[in-house]
Amino acid sequence: MRRYAARRSDHVNEGGHAGPPLPRRRQHANLHRFVEWTQQGIGKVNASAKRLDAGRKAFKKAGAEIKDTYMTLGRYDLVCVIEAPDDETYARQCWPRFTRDVSSETLKAFSEDQYRKITGSI
């Protein structure tokens, strides 16, 4: 009995390409950190941008990224949009950065696709 080698065109993955199935891209944690300067932080507001730059470097080194930062009007002074491989990576980067200069609250955000999947399964 003769064995025939499979042609590359015999195997078409989900992306329409020849070859084995492509691995699914893991969804990163999308987190929004709402930051409020304390009285001490307001006194050192001119150093805030340097602290943000240091935070960006630290997150990047850990495999996470501060995607956007917005200065806001209202209850919070800044909103940082952060993408991390998982919640644990984010938490490890945030805990050492909680200082007397800011207080913060983090919300985990779900994409529209995730939202539709979640609400559709209820």
Q: Helical stretch count?
A: 4
Based on DSSP secondary structure assignment, what is the total number of beta strands? 4
The assigned structural class equals: alpha+beta
Q: What's the overall average pLDDT, rounded? A: 82
Low-confidence stretches: 6-14
CATH topology of the domain at 29-110: Alpha-Beta Plaits
Strand content: 25-35%
SSE layout and pairing:
Elements: E1 29-37, H1 39-43, H2 48-61, E2 65-71, E3 78-84, H3 87-94, E4 102-109, H4 112-120
Antiparallel strand pairs: 1-3, 1-4, 2-3
Describe the structure.
With 122 residues, the protein is an alpha+beta fold. The chain has helices spanning 39-43, 48-61, 87-94, 112-120, and strands at residues 29-37, 65-71, 78-84, 102-109. It has a domain at 29-110: 2-Layer Sandwich (Alpha-Beta Plaits). It contains 4 helices and 4 strands. The longest helix is centred in the middle third of the chain and has 14 residues, at 48-61. The radius of gyration is 22 Å and the shape is globular.
